[in-house]
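Sample entry (232 residues):
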Amino acid sequence: MDLREYMSVRRAYNVVRQDTVPEERLTFEEFAILCRLDFAGVPMKTSDIAEYQGALRPTMTHRTNHLASLGLIERAEGEHDRRNVVCAISDAGRARVERLSELTRAQIPSGRSLSRTSAERIRKYVDAMGSFFCKAGDLVLLGLLSSDGTALTIMQLVDLLGLLQPTVSMSVSSLAEGGYVTRMRSAGEGRTSSVCLTPEGMEVARSLAASIEKIVVRRKLRGPRKDEPAEA
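Predicted structure, serialized as tokens:
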């Protein structure tokens, strides 16, 4: 997966999430869990889902609790070990995956990476991307990197990332304090300021991008050719 594909999907889903009523909103990681369970087709241990997302058990318990409270997954004690809770996607969860995938696909503007892909392909991307946790601050760094190092205003970052303005502003402030970005006052534009990566921020952003490039998206398995017999 390349950076522009990753940013297209994350931005599109961020927009979809903001347009969803608060009580129905899912984090990107929760959406990815639904996609993973949908593709698995069988119940998965909570510990295996946590390993897939590189998350601690308490974090995964919180995520699955939320999904279960919305009726999107069903949980049960493990067959051989009651401490091992297993999760399975519900019919409502499958319907939510289909709807969110279609809405996400529709939010990718023409001309951007994956703008002509299918909702099914979006599900595969989300499933793969769920293995890489990315905070709002990380998205800001990646957004600046994807702009080829060009300084961007807060509102340009908001549009690029699909996040709310307060979220972007707080992330930029935190990154500036850490020395990862710097803010420059734009000449002749009042209080408008632009944000750009520092050398330290560029290094972190490139490291994040390198991790994204290692993400492998599922590909559709080829069926047998017409002149070949199907495997028994």
